[in-house]
Specification:
Blueprint (H helix, E strand, L loop, with lengths): L7 H12 L5 H12 L3 H17 L2 H6 L15 H11 L3 H7 L6 E5 L6 H7 L5 E5 L2 E4 L9 H4 L3 E3 L2 H8 L8 E4 L6 H9 L5 E6 L2 H14 L4 E5 L3 H5 L5 E7 L20 H19 L2 E11 L8 H9 L6 E8 L11 E7 L4
Parallel strand pairs: 5-6, 5-8, 6-7, 8-9
Antiparallel strand pairs: 1-3, 1-4, 2-3, 9-11, 10-11
């Protein structure tokens, strides 16, 4: 479906909002939809056009339709240093990895079993062409208006990528446990832990951004999860006081986001070699500080939505070789690329802390 010429300026403005003003692409699209109130078919076209415009940094070509079927990593707007890192890591498969950044990602949700069963949720989401993928994960093949549905307002599901769900399940959170989500953000994984624990036990959700934790509080109310204690990290003491108190610690570190670029192509606009190197330092520090929160015999899961080994396996290798990592053993690790089983690119490592005192 071509975009009517009367809407071209609105699309250009949305593109400028991202490229010039630094607005998140998702916010720019939401603002565009509020302005033009598109029907489902047009909404899909508008979204696709803006995604391609950002991926290739060319709004005019996107509006002309000449990028509709393009999947060209050489033409895409990808930072040179990132191209070099991917080439160094993946060799002859570099174009496969870079091309995965440019594909469209399915919409996945997690059924909130605190309120509804998977089968009941499937029936409720039949108009959105819901398909069960695995566990509590559903793929939504017709997502238009999904998040304004009554089922969403009633807290029956949360948007969450299937690989992200798999990563969170590595913690194996169980009823009655004490869990710490060290980088909780808006709490997608925190809410998964609450459901896995059947709302029994305690979850401490930490983050440095008060706004994200406020969003978590709103999601908690909708989901019916009342075992979560959101805490803003204002000083290092907030974390230190929790030393050796958790059965499980989940550490989803801030990263380059190379595993989720297909969902958020504007990520690459703000990614520089300097910020990448700063992230590596931050990741190592977060892992070191928060691993200490696990009790002897407890579990630590380190996760990052990146395809770069420097943010994944190399961080774990360096941690285990350090004095801080002496009490930990690597139990399990895995890596996915964007598109593997439909999901995002992730690195996940499960560590166990020695039970020796």
């Amino acid at each position: 479906m071509p975009i009517p010429s009367s809407l071209h300026d609105a699309v250009r403005q949305s593109f400028d909002d991202v490229v010039i003003s630094g607005r998140h692409l998702s916010t720019a699209i939401e603002n565009l939809f509020r302005t033009v109130h598109p029907a489902p078919g047009l909404a899909t076209t508008l979204r696709s056009t803006l995604f391609q415009a950002i991926r290739y940094n060319n709004v005019e070509a996107a509006l002309a339709g000449s990028l509709d079927t393009i999947l060209d990593p050489d033409l895409a707007d990808i930072p040179a240093f990132l191209r070099e890192l991917v080439a160094k890591t993946y060799g002859k498969d570099k174009n496969k990895v870079l091309s995965s950044f440019l594909t469209d990602a399915p919409t996945f949700v997690r059924v909130n079993t605190l309120k509804i069963s998977v089968d009941e949720c499937l029936r409720a989401l039949r108009p959105f062409q819901a398909v069960r993928v695995e566990g509590y994960a559903l793929r939504i093949d017709r997502p238009f208006a999904l998040f304004s549905s009554e089922a969403f307002e009633d807290g029956w599901f949360e948007q969450m990528d299937v690989t992200s769900q798999r990563a969170a399940h590595e913690l194996n959170a169980r009823p009655g446990q004490r869990i710490i989500d060290a980088c909780a953000g808006a709490g997608g994984k925190t809410l998964l832990f609450a459901a896995s624990m059947q709302n029994k036990g305690r979850i401490i959700a930490l983050d440095t951004h008060a706004g994200k934790l406020q969003a978590l509080r709103q999601r908690m109310a909708r989901a019916g999860a009342d075992i979560i204690d959101p805490r803003v990290i204002t000083t290092t003491k907030v974390v230190k006081r929790l030393a050796e108190t958790a059965d499980g610690v989940f550490i989803d570190v801030p990263c380059t986001g190379t595993g989720v670029v297909r969902r958020n192509p504007d990520i690459l606009r703000n990614l520089t070699e300097k910020t990448y190197k700063e992230l590596l330092v931050i990741q190592a520090d977060i892992l070191r500080r928060n691993a200490r929160l696990a009790k002897p015999g407890g579990t630590v899961v380190y996760a990052t939505c990146s395809v770069l080994p420097s943010e994944g396996k190399e961080q774990i290798k360096n941690f285990l070789a350090s004095e801080d990592g002496e009490q930990f053993k690597l139990a399990y690790t895995w890596q996915t690329l964007p598109g593997d089983n439909g999901g995002d690119g992730f690195y996940v490592a499960r560590l166990t802390r020695s039970s020796a005192s």
